[in-house]
Amino acid sequence: MMSDIDIIKKYFPLTELQEQQFAALGVLYREWNAKINVISRKDIDNLFEHHILHSLAIAKYLSFKEGSAILDVGTGGGFPGIPLAVMFPNVEFTLIDSIGKKIRVATEVAVGAQIPNVRCIQERVEEEKGKYDFVVSRAVMPLADLYKLTRKNISSVQRNALPNGIIALKGGELTKEISQFRKIAEIEDLSSYFNEEYFSTKKIVYLSIKGPSN
């Protein structure tokens, strides 16, 4: 039978440290979710497939260069930011959410799993002033809102293979949602990365944004 870690190793080569960190996520999320519900109780057994591997779809789409800075908006309990921080140890991740108990879980999990390149902040995205190479999110809000609220946070300094912008994990029918972004949007089906049934309706949306001058 496939272990939790095996579903990650099926798609990504992992160092020994990364294996340890992902294993720790399995323990810590189960412990913390029993106290503060950030993942539905019936879904916690699918933690690695539905939450960790789903988050790592962004790592399939783009390999962040060392020194990049990433903002995870509406991170909840730490998705997609914490799994991505394990995958990219030389990239800085800032995770924000307006709900304090969710940020507490993300903070405790990152500390417990010894993931040093994560900082978790309780704040609304409107309040965030920092500049980042990319904004990432997982089904937090409509793309139009995400674009409007975060374009101020996109740095004009380019260091990655793709122009700076927004990378969002989405599900379902997106035609209407992306209609205003046709010139700057790319959509990938996650079924092209992962063969589990769960990903058959999941997508990744990238919006290229030319950052404001810093």
Overall geometric form: globular
Number of helices: 7
List the quaternary state of the chains. Answer: single chain
What is the percentage of strand-forming residues? 15-25%
Largest sheet: number of strands, sense, barrel closure: 7 strands, mixed
**Quick check: average pLDDT?**
94
Strand order of the largest sheet: 3-2-1-4-5-7-6
Task: Indicate the percent of residues in helices.
Answer: 25-40%
Question: How many strand units?
Answer: 7
- Spans of 5+ residues with little confidence (pLDDT < 50)? none
Structure description:
With 214 residues, the protein is α/β, with parallel strands linked by helices. 34% of the residues lie in helices and 19% in strands. The protein has 7 helices and 7 strands; from the N terminus they run αααβαβαββαβαββ. It has a 7-stranded mixed beta sheet with strand order 3-2-1-4-5-7-6, with helices on both faces. α2 (16-35) runs antiparallel to α5 (100-112) and α3 (47-61) crosses α4. The protein is globular, with a radius of gyration of 16 Å. The relative contact order is 0.15.
Concise overview:
With 214 residues, the protein is α/β, with parallel strands linked by helices. The protein has seven helices and seven strands; from the N terminus they run H-H-H-E-H-E-H-E-E-H-E-H-E-E.
Task: Give the tags.
214 residues, alpha/beta, single chain, seven-stranded mixed β-sheet
Compile the SSE list and pairings.
Layout: H1 4-9, H2 16-35, H3 47-61, E1 69-73, H4 81-87, E2 92-97, H5 100-112, E3 118-122, E4 134-138, H6 143-150, E5 165-171, H7 175-178, E6 185-189, E7 202-208
Parallel strand pairs: 1-2, 1-4, 2-3, 4-5
Antiparallel strand pairs: 5-7, 6-7
